[in-house]
Amino acid sequence: MLLSRLMQDALAATPDKPALMFEDTVLSYRELHDAIERSARGLLSLGIGRGDRVAIFMRNRWEYVELYFACFRIGAIAVPLNHRFQTDEVVFAINHCTAKLLIADESLLPIVKDVPEQAASLTGMYVYGGDVAPDAPNRWSDVVAAASDSVAWPEVDDDDPAMILYTSGSTGKPKGVTHTHRSIGATAASRVTTQQLDADDISLAATAICHAGAAIGVTFPTLYAGGTVVILAESDPGLFLDALKTHRPTRTVLLPAQLLDAVVDPRAKSVDFGCFREVACGGDQMSSDLYDEFAKVTDLQLNQLYGLTECEAVSMNPPFGVVERGSFGLPRAGVEVRIVAAASTAEDTDGSQVPDAAPGETGEIWVRSDSVMTGYWDDPEHTAATFVGDWLRTGDLGSRDTDRYLHFQGRIKEIIIKGGSNIAPGEVEDVLEASPGVELCGVVGTPDPRLGSLVHAFVELKHGLADPPTEADLRAFAAERLAAYKVPDRWTFVTDLPRNHVGKIDRHALHLRAVELDAI
């Protein structure tokens, strides 16, 4: 599916229906289409064409969607950059993909003002948004206004790259996950089928639209179904709860910590969550507290999903079927998932010689689908290491129960090997977070000369407890629920766990902290 045609059915059937809502702005499908066409002509007027990279450095706003589809219209490649990036991170991404153009928010200009001097590939940097001063230099609106209405539209192919999304890995340089029109279109069509999306749906894009979840997972499928997308300016419990009152959304996808902040907010008691047909959570482990607190505001079952930038929303609990608490459900339409027992692939070119794990056993999660990325931009080594034939090795550990439902067990690179036994950090974290006094925890391995590694738990207790649990309390709690070798050997209590750009626990920071503590 060419992404420039993703909205064609809705545009033909309901041109005046709201497609996007952002703060006080409402755009119909006709108005969004016209804005996309204008920006596409603007890109062409600057010499941007098929295959050229356009970096977008903006906070959540409706114009982000316009620029995405303007790139798709002419076969250019959209490169959304995390709005939390600092200058060096922006420079790295632009140089890595040799972007020709950078379009940024005025509020983010202090971060990127010197980027053109450090990025030889850039031919221009422009500022976009309705709040840009009329006399500001390099306004995107001026480029659009000056562009000719008469253009020759480039030919675009389904297999042309459409987006490069830089991963938020905690070690090493980010990798550019490359998606095509085909892979993004396959995800949109699959989500419509799996979730039974339709034109009556109002989806709340509550996470950063520069990431795969809010863009490929929420916005694009909803527009494909002819629904309406409400974009939140930022992750904020107040904005989320206000949106429920004002827009009555039917769908949303949130990070676990984000949803927990919203449902425990005192204002949540006065908000009706009954508008939702589905609330999904992904991107991190979900604690028992989240399920319990969510149940206090709605009877709706919370849908846990699993995905990665390389393949958005691999698996989810069926929104209209059986939901298994603690499981990320079943593969969505058009996605195959294997739980592989052994990761040795030296003699295996297509994965057929690698056995699958038995039900209940932990193995690596492998994925095959048209939704999977084509590879990492300009990185054949990592691309080759990630694929076995057409199977994507996720680097994540999972298991499959007797009902075929999938469960997350941790990540291979984070696996702790203690005395020859493998320990999945997620399993230990799940147990500790089930303790009534624990808000959140992060578990990492720390070197040990005798056993190879020990288990180090960083624990964030619930605030305001009159009688907080001690190390001895938590050790006893864990010992009742885990094999002895899995019980943490070292404990550190923290006020707040470190997080990375997308709100996940920063395990690299925890590893560094563990090393510092070992040296004391």
TrEMBL record:
Pfam families: AMP-binding, AMP-binding_C. PROSITE patterns: AMP_BINDING. SUPFAM superfamilies: Acetyl-CoA synthetase-like (SSF56801). InterPro entries: AMP-bd_C, AMP-bd_C_sf, AMP-binding_CS, AMP-dep_synth/lig_dom, ANL_N_sf, ATP-dep_AMP-bd_enzyme. It comes from the Bacteria. Residues 9-377 form the AMP-dependent synthetase/ligase domain. Residues 427-504 form the AMP-binding enzyme C-terminal domain. PANTHER family: LONG-CHAIN-FATTY-ACID--COA LIGASE (PTHR43767), NONRIBOSOMAL PEPTIDE SYNTHASE PES1 (EUROFUNG)-RELATED (PTHR43767:SF1). This is AMP-binding protein. It comes from Rhodococcus artemisiae.
